[in-house]
TrEMBL record:
Its main location: membrane. Residues 428-633 form the MRH domain. Keywords: Cell membrane, Disulfide bond, Glycoprotein, Membrane, Signal, Transmembrane, Transmembrane helix. It holds the Pfam family GBD_ELAPOR1-like_3rd. InterPro entries: Elapor1-like_3rd, Elapor1/2, Elapor1/2_C, Elapor1/2_GBD, Elapor1/2_MRH, Elapor1/2_TNFR-like, Growth_fac_rcpt_cys_sf, Man6P_isomerase_rcpt-bd_dom_sf. It comes from the Eukaryota. GO terms for cellular component: plasma membrane. It is found in: Cell membrane. The keyword Glycoprotein applies. This is MRH domain-containing protein.
């Protein structure tokens, strides 16, 4: 309860909640049972009491409500009784109603505790207050009570030991409920917990109650009734009562052999139920941690066929689990939905601190000196079947959180991931390697390992309230630690204060990917923005790969635009172990990392255009993260060389990146290289000299041969003339003497060795 001091004059009181209607179903966050205002109200006139109320004293502050089976008219001083046998009325009625004939909706059955003979009796009772008549035509009478039936057996972990009641087995022993409690054999330890599947009496750690916001009809009633093989909702006082069932567990702890394991799951609670409804009934499942606040975990509306639901426990604390059933949220005077009910067939809690054992499980044995008692295995160790000794899991495997017996308890990590030193979880070190066309691509996402955020929207509710979807993504975490945080009220506390405070602060969730609903301050007139409905989208890392499929998570090609480069996208896959009504296998998340050199630093995160909320089915979420930091590391294949001109006997070689540049970091560009070379000017001079010499030589030879040719023509012409003049004479012998008129132009050679010019002349003479 809360109390506020009012000032004199006009006071305006208002109550405001932060819950908003996101769909067709809304969970009521606040229940106000009574508002009392004390003090003197000043007024200039008096008003008559309205029908159904009365005032029997002058100067009364307010009018009193007429009790049940009475009525009053306007301005009444007292209430008038209804005719007891044929009429009835609810509290605050203005008239009496005729009592209807009794039907099957007006009574219910219960089971009595087992007697010494192991029998239980079925008892029938009228729903109170009884408003029907048994003496009318077509009225149904109350069935006879007292029929005896065999009592159901004790629940697993309990035994009756020949008595009429079941008692828990002593520590270190076990029973299936039908046999005596026996100690576990050597090398085995009890598997502690609770398994309630027979409902003859309400278990000692459970209680039931009834609550109604508007009246006190059901105060003190049992909200639930045991019924042999199930427990079902009771009759209550009104159709809009909350019928409450509580289960209290002081704590959870793993088995001895798993004490050293660092897995996130500490225990789990599973229940099997069904609802049979003709109206808008709702079953709520709520959890309270350390008796601080009760939060709705899941709810089911309308008729639901028989199904199971599991809630996972992540830390050791005092838990109270609550099931609340409401037939309708509309207050009505008559009972129309009394036959609407919920049945819970079994409730199972594992690893409960004060639990009992229905079976034994293998455990690790200590050394011979310590005997055959069970000992905890070190973190990351499983129990070897042959020797019952602890043995460490192989590299890059993690230890199952459900069992540690046998090597199969070590589960291989997904692609691109490694296990922590204690083999508790698998994680990504933000590096990835891929072979493509004989080329190795190395990625380093460490600069993106810090939390990335995306504010998506705005969206609007049916009443026009504006809200945003806010996502936090921790790509790699920190060696398995989930770094993305979402809060349910970001304006009241800073994240730092929350982390430094209590570990069971229920408004703070940590994950690889989480989502909050943000209501801006201007939307509803709040002083600051509100954050609510924080949920975990991913708390387990599955692997990283260039493939678009991993463990039944698919990324369709048409979901995101096609990448303009040939660099493959890298995909991070996650899942959440928490199941919901629509996501029976839990939620999953895929993050597509794409190389985009135009978006440096943290880059840009987006969602599919066809699914603006990040998901199309509410179970699988997709994100595209574009950044230059998502490009592979640079290698020698990402640059080429350019050779410069040869200047003064030296040549420069430069190295430049290929354009466009689809890499980052990695190797650096090599320094420019300077090498010796033969310059163009030198060879040009050599060529010019050789050409000039060749030209002079050709001119000289041409002149020489031309002159020699002239002499030969002269000699030939003289020979022809001589031959013609002495045609009949014998030819004279050739003379080597110089004829008259000829010049002696032959050179005298004084050297035995001829020069080059001499050799040419001799050749020409011949």
């Amino acid at each position: 309860s809360s109390q506020v001091m009012l000032k004199s004059g006009t006071n305006i009181l208002y109550w405001r909640t932060t819950g908003i209607l996101m769909g067709s179903k809304a969970i009521k966050p606040v229940l106000v049972k009574n508002i009392t205002i004390e003090g003197v109200a000043y007024t200039s006139e008096c008003f008559p009491c309205k029908p159904g109320t009365f005032s029997n004293k002058p100067g009364s502050f307010n009018c009193q409500v007429c009790p049940r089976n009475t009525y009053s008219e306007k301005g009444a001083k007292e209430c008038i009784k209804c005719e007891e046998h044929s009429q009835f009325s609810e509290e605050g009625s203005s008239e009496c109603l005729e009592r209807p004939p009794c039907t099957t909706k007006d009574y219910f059955q219960i089971h009595t505790p087992c007697d010494e003979e192991g029998k239980t009796q079925i008892m029938y009772k009228w729903i109170e207050p009884k408003i029907c008549r048994e003496d009318l035509t077509d009225a149904i009478r109350l069935p006879p009570s007292g029929e005896k039936k065999d009592c159901p057996p004790c629940n697993p972990g309990f035994y009756n030991n020949g008595s009429s009641s079941c008692h828990p087995c002593p520590p270190g022993t076990f029973s299936d409920g039908t046999k005596e409690c026996r100690p576990c054999p050597a090398g085995m330890e009890p598997a502690l917990g609770f398994e309630y599947k027979w409902w003859n009496v309400l278990p000692g750690n459970m209680k039931t109650s009834c609550f109604n916001v508007g009246n006190s009809k059901c105060d003190g009633m049992n909200g639930w009734e045991v019924a042999g093989d199930h427990i079902q909702s009771g009759a209550g006082g009104s159709d809009n009562d909350y019928l409450i069932l509580n289960l209290h567990i002081p704590g959870f702890k793993p088995p001895t052999s798993m004490t050293g394991a660092m897995g996130s799951e500490l225990g789990r609670i599973t229940f099997v139920f069904e609802t049979l409804c003709s109206a808008d009934c709702v079953l709520y499942f709520m959890v309270d941690i350390n008796r601080k606040s009760t939060n709705v975990v899941e709810s089911w509306g309308g008729t639901k066929e028989k199904q199971a639901y599991t809630h996972i426990i992540f830390k050791n604390a005092t838990f109270t689990f609550t099931w609340a059933f409401q037939r309708t949220n509309q207050g009505q005077d008559n009972r129309r939905f009394i036959n609407d009910m919920v049945k819970i067939y079994s409730i199972t809690a594992t690893n409960a601190v004060d639990g009992v054992a229905s079976s034994c499980r293998a455990c690790a044995l200590g050394s011979e000196q310590s005997g055959s008692s069970c000992v905890p295995c070190p973190p990351g160790h499983y129990i070897e079947k042959e020797t019952n000794q602890c043995k460490e899991c192989p590299p890059d495997t993690y230890l199952s959180i459900h069992q540690v017996y046998g090597k199969e308890a070590c589960i291989p990590c997904g692609p691109g991931s490694r296990s922590t030193q204690d083999h508790s979880v698998c994680y990504s070190d933000c590096s990835f390697h891929h072979e493509k066309e004989n080329q190795s691509l190395h990625y380093d996402f460490s600069n993106l390992s810090s939390v990335g955020s995306l504010m998506n929207g705005p969206s609007f509710t049916s009443k026009g309230t504006k809200y945003f979807h806010f996502f936090n993504i921790s790509l790699c975490g920190h060696e398995g630690k989930k770094m993305a945080l979402c809060t349910n009220n970001i304006t009241d506390f800073t994240v730092k204060e929350m982390v430094a405070g209590s570990d069971d602060y229920t408004n703070l969730v940590g994950a690889y990917v989480c989502q909050s609903t943000i209501i801006p301050s201007e939307s509803k007139g709040f002083r600051a923005a509100l954050s609510s409905q924080s949920i975990i989208l991913a708390d387990t890392f599955l692997g990283v790969t260039v493939e678009t499929t991993l463990q039944n998570i698919y990324i369709k090609e048409e979901m995101f635009p096609v990448s303009p480069s040939q660099i493959p996208d890298v995909h991070f896959f996650y899942k959440s172990s928490t199941t919901t009504t629509s996501c029976v296998n839990g939620r999953s998340t895929a993050v597509k990392m794409r190389c985009n050199p135009t978006k440096p630093g943290a880059g840009v995160i987006s969602v599919p255009s066809k699914c603006p909320a990040g998901t199309c089915d509410g179970c699988t979420f997709y994100f595209l993260w574009e950044s230059a930091e998502a490009c592979p590391l640079c290698t020698e294949h990402d640059f080429h060389e350019i050779e410069g001109a040869c200047k003064r006997g030296f040549q420069e070689t430069l190295y430049v990146w290929n354009e466009p540049k689809w890499c980052i970091k990695g190797i650096s560009l090599p320094e420019k290289k300077l090498s010796t070379c033969e310059t163009v000017d030198f060879w040009l001079k050599v060529g010019a000299g050789v050409g000039a010499f060749t030209a002079v030589l050709l001119v000289a030879l041409t002149c020489y041969f031309w002159k020699k040719n002239q002499k030969l023509e002269y000699k030939y012409s003289k020979l022809v003339m001589t031959a013609n003049s002495k045609e009949c004479e014998l030819p004279a012998a050739d003379s080597c003497a110089i004829m008259e008129g000829e010049d002696n132009e032959e050179e005298v050679v004084y050297s035995n060795k001829q020069s080059l010019l001499g050799k040419l002349k001799s050749l020409a003479t011949k």
